[in-house]
Amino acid sequence: MSADTPHVLVVDDEADLRELLVITLGRMKLKATAAESLGAAKDKLNSDRFDLCLTDMNLGDGTGIELLQHISQHCPEMPTAVITAYGNMETATDAMKLGAYDFISKPVALDRLRQLIEDGLGISHAEGHQEEEDNLIGMAPSMQALKTQVRKLSRSQAPIYISGESGSGKERIARLIHNLGPRRDKPFVAVNCGAIPSELMESEFFGHRKGAFTGAVEDRKGLFREADGGTLFLDEVADLPLHMQVKLLRAIQEKSVRPVGEAREFQVNLRILCATHKDLANEMAEGRFRQDLFYRLNVIEAHVPPLRERKEDIPALVNHILQRLSNAWETSAPKVSDQAMTALREYSFPGNVRELENTLERAMTLCEGQVIEVENLHLHGQPSYSPVTKQESPKHATLERDSSQPLEDFLQEIERQEIIKALDATHWNRTAAAKKLGMTFRSLRYRLKKLELDQDEGE
Questions:
Q1: Does residue 371 sit in the same domain as residue 273?
Q2: Which range of residues forms the domain containing residue 443?
Q3: If exposure means fewest CB atoms within 10 Å of the residue's CB, which of 13, 53, 67, 117 is most exposed?
């Protein structure tokens, strides 16, 4: 073996399993060193350099948790996985929080063991892609702490629960965790759980066979298999109905899915990230979210701070967003007057970064010349903001159609105005806007697309 051959430390108090792991690593053309106890493992770590560590939880003179604590202090860059016969959710959570990138129970299938080793070695190869992190705008202490946490989380395979208000950028954090990790070259599949009709969820998640039900005109892989090897991001996971939560839990635990109408199961290897703007612990306490699924998904929580708690980041965000919009529109980026920037910094932004994006896009459209002024921002509560008065309200106004205007266009314009008004009132929270309009989220999304009002997730 050459000097570049990855070196793996195997720690297990059972001689047979140590030997099996060493043989498996040898067949993968990897160099392996075995240790039978916690003390022996510490000696090996002090005297040699390793690219990966596989450890049992029961080590005779200590535990795998103690070894993880030692590794986190003395060689934190080395990926470590726990393989044990004493697995439970609490132990797995402790191991993940101490830096283990994965946790599996014995007996271990050979293909699962190979995947575990490849994932661990892939973490080292993924180092050096820090340019992705630079796209996360913000120097506030809360954002610096989040960046540090994201770097650690990207090395792990643990499920992550990303909490934060609507529009704060939860999907962006999920993408960053994926892009900085060893699965960065594999698919990142994001799905809004609240946007899928209940009766189609099983098919959307797990796929279906042609002819399994009316409308199944061809085979479909489903989201789990589309994300195989990569990351599946479940946005608004609290909106999943209880019957679907049971099926989701089984798929995560068994790492396999069965498409609708299919007799066999398919193995999947993916990382689950999830997010919701709701309080997931409260949803569980109220009985709307299963406790076992909550603990399965919420191994580690990453919180995205609201924009009002990091106002010092607003100027940098404004410049970044204006530059991005200008590139898309193929124009030069406008400047923001001192008064307008002060107004932006003093505004509370209940819709967070998504609202800031919408505000700037509207201001770029309305401003005269190359300077955005306060009156172009139309912030709620500002003197320049002119809410619809009772006399001007469409409820009281008389709408008249020009005789030359087709009825379809006239009705579509009314629909557009009502949707924009609901979105503005809810700071472009589409779920809340749909409720305000008395329609489903899916119906609103269809109309946004039809009226060309659809916009991507914010920063």
A1: no
A2: 407-451
A3: 13
Closest by CA to 174, choosing from 305, 300, 279, 275, is 275
- Name the maximum alpha-carbon separation found in the chain: 89
We report the CATH number of the domain holding residue 371 as: 1.10.8.60
Residues 323 and 291 in one domain: no
Do 294 and 319 fall within a single domain? no
Encoded amino acid at 224, one letter: F
Say how far residue 118 (Cα) sits from the centre of its chain: 23
pLDDT in tens, 141-186: 999 999 989 988 888 888 899 999 988 999 999 999 999 888 888 9
Q: Cβ(408)–Cβ(419) under 8 Å?
A: no
Coil, strand or helix at 403: coil
Cα–Cα distance measured from residue 307 to residue 298, given in angstroms and rounded to the nearest whole number: 24
Q: Which amino acid appears at position 108 of this protein?
A: V
Q: What is the pLDDT of residues 353-411, one digit of tens each?
A: 999 999 999 898 888 888 999 988 888 665 444 333 333 444 444 456 667 667 777 77
Q: Of the candidates 225, 17, 50, 24, which has an alpha carbon nearest to the alpha carbon of residue 113?
A: 24
pTM beyond 0.85, yes or no:
no
- Of 72, 91, 124, the residue at which a domain comes to its end is 124
Same domain membership, residue 271 and residue 140: yes
